[in-house]
Specification:
By secondary structure, the protein is mostly helical. About 65% of the residues lie in helices and about 0% in strands. It has six helices and no strands. The longest helix has about 50 residues, at about 70-120. It is elongated and about 75 Å long.
Amino acid sequence: MTNMYSLNSNVKFPNMEYYDMDKASDMALYLAHCDFYPFKSVIENNKIALDVIAESYRKIAKEARGDKDFVTEEWAMTSGGLHSCRVDLLTQYSLLLTMVALLEEAVNTLCRLYHGIKHLDKELKDIKGSGLERAAKYLKEEVGIIGFTADKQWEYITAIRDARNMIVHNGGRIHKDFEKYDKFGIGYREEDHQLYLEYGDIIKMYDAILDFMDRAFRIVPQS
């Protein structure tokens, strides 16, 4: 797990003294951490809320059973089941969407900072393509950063991004590249191939993204 150089707070936030703000790499990483460090609390707070609600349904069902109030027991069990299989899942989807959006903005910001500091002719928007691949191409061809996509986490990062795309465009159902999801343990239901994400999956993805940025953003451009 990545070390967090953070202010002493329950909600983590980066401490500027650990960054060289004269460098585009450190500036971009600081801005990325400004989003990602507090986002950890968003993940954790959602888990707390989901666990409390699930426990409340179990408690209501148990008490209703003791009182032979079968109508209330059935309501609580049905509500608890839907909470577990649908509300929890949709919450994890929402967290993944936000997390990948923050990642893409962080990588785009890295490109924009290099453009401004190095006074490059081309901007990111001048490069064909989109998303992470377009930014990586810009960093290689215009900035001179070699190895951005050679990072050990790059394949997993793009798999996370592809999972996000499946949520956005297919309601979470995947229709190809099953071996990629299997490789990285990104689960899906066999019957309809819908992505099945839990709290542990989101934390794993979060840690991987932070780990990737902490290395890749600090690659020194070649002359």
